[in-house]
Amino acid sequence: MSLMTETKLEKKLAKALEPFQQFIQTQTFSSKLLIVFTALSLIIANSLWAEEFSQITAVTLGFSVNGAIAGMSLLHWVNDGLMALFFFLLGMEIKREILVGEMSTPANLIPVLAAAIGGMVFPAIIFYLFNLDSPYVDGWGIPMATDTAFAVGILMLLGARVPPAAYAFLTGLAIIDDLGAILVIAVFYTDTLHWAYLGASLVAFAVLVAINYCGGRNPVYYAVFGILVWAMMLNSGVHATVAGILVAATVPARPKRDSGWLIKRLLTLTKRFDKIEQERNAQTPILASEEQHKIVKHVKTATDKATTPLYRWEIALEKPISLFVLPVFALLNAGILINADRLGGLVSNPLAQGIFFGLFVGKGLGIPLFAWLSIKCNWGVLPAGLTMRHVVGIGLLGGIGFTMSIFITTLGFGQDIESINIAKAAILFTSLLCGFSAWFWLKFFTGKVDATAVR
């Protein structure tokens, strides 16, 4: 009986698509896609279609109840809705890193944590000093966060020039940075609290905690009550994306069955499948074997029981978030009108100065300095293969604020379009400079990676 069921056409098509599929699976593709949509947003903002595009983003989407429209503009659906999914994914990454990742052991966690604190405190202080007596002082949270997609994408462009530990260090750093930015959003970018809605959101959150505690793993439960947490948070005054982090914290991180059970179960199912396969007529298609299809379903159920929802849901959301949510956010938010007067005014504008020096100097200095201090004080060690020269480059990568920085800009300045445009221009320029500087430093000033090096 033939073991191959693919047709010749399917084989040729699979071979032709393989390079494309491998390319899509890389972090560099996500970064490049983000760059393309950012460029497209800038082109539209500086074209004859700018006004029409703005009107499209302002279209209200929702439903009508007794003649009253309940809904939000397309822009708000993206910033308050789709971005909540991004924060949900981010929250699951945070939980996984704390439980089993680089941040699960104190010796490795402390330098990353120290670097992240330095990468938040220094930029905020620098921005505040530049804008102490200006109307832009509320934007101090803008240079605090790091855009993980862009930063990791640049690391991947360097290939073997950087050790594997650099990815873990940068990812942990970016996750803590983003968590700090989320706390800033929740505490400092909330104007008025509506306690009834906030209370309802926390009740729905408590239900999710109870479901987790009782062993519930059905994604429908988490989807239904997760949407309730988000909807109530949306009306509470706290930014709705915070709901993504809260719901992520309740996602089960324990498998229902252990690996021993899985091995026994798969052996049993495999024997049953093989027995039917031996008895099946070679001319009878497997499609006609209802029993074999049932066994395959049982295999899927068994593997789901032996893996954690935290792992499965994170994997399931990674590509939709990186290939759809973040590019759409960039398309709707990165566009600014570029002209000589605006670019010339950035040099002397305190908002632009605060963002530039906050991201480039604050991150570039704060991250390696605090990591170095934690090591000198014997509080922790760098992972194997990672040196302080690498951490300097990672500090420059931390200055790529982009997604989170633009997001906080829209919260900090609300309807002040001119301030938003100034901030976006400064974020884009500084992120580009930080990305190039980090690539240059890591390529020419860190030396070749020694795979056997252990610190």
For this structure, the CATH topology of the domain at 32-61 and 68-86 and 106-189 and 326-444 is Na+/H+ antiporter like fold
Question: Over the alpha carbons, how many angstroms does the gyration radius reach?
Answer: 25 Å
Judged by helices, strands and strand pairing, the structural class is mainly alpha
Helix percent reads over 70%
Task: Figure out the total of helices.
Answer: 18
- Reported CATH architecture of the domain at 32-61 and 68-86 and 106-189 and 326-444: Up-down Bundle
Largest sheet: 2 strands, antiparallel
Return residue spans where pLDDT drops below 50 for at least 5 consecutive residues: 19-24, 451-455
In percent, how much strand structure appears in the residues?
Answer: under 5%
- Quickly name the level 1 CATH class of the domain at 32-61 and 68-86 and 106-189 and 326-444: Mainly Alpha
Total beta strand runs: 2
- Could you give the order of strands across the largest sheet? 1-2
Q: Considering the protein shown, what is the CATH homologous superfamily of the domain at 32-61 and 68-86 and 106-189 and 326-444?
A: Na+/H+ antiporter like domain
Mean pLDDT: 82
Distance between the termini: 55 Å
Helix-strand topology string: HHHEEHHHHHHHHHHHHHHH
Mass-distribution shape: globular
Task: Please outline the helices and strands.
Blueprint: H1 8-24, H2 27-45, H3 50-57, E1 60-65, E2 68-73, H4 74-100, H5 106-130, H6 148-157, H7 164-188, H8 195-213, H9 219-234, H10 242-249, H11 259-279, H12 290-306, H13 309-333, H14 340-346, H15 350-376, H16 388-397, H17 402-413, H18 417-444
Antiparallel strand pairs: 1-2
Transmembrane segments: 33-49, 69-90, 110-130, 142-160, 167-189, 195-213, 220-249, 321-339, 351-371, 391-413, 425-442
Function: Na(+)/H(+) antiporter that extrudes sodium in exchange for external protons.
Membrane topology: Multi-pass membrane protein
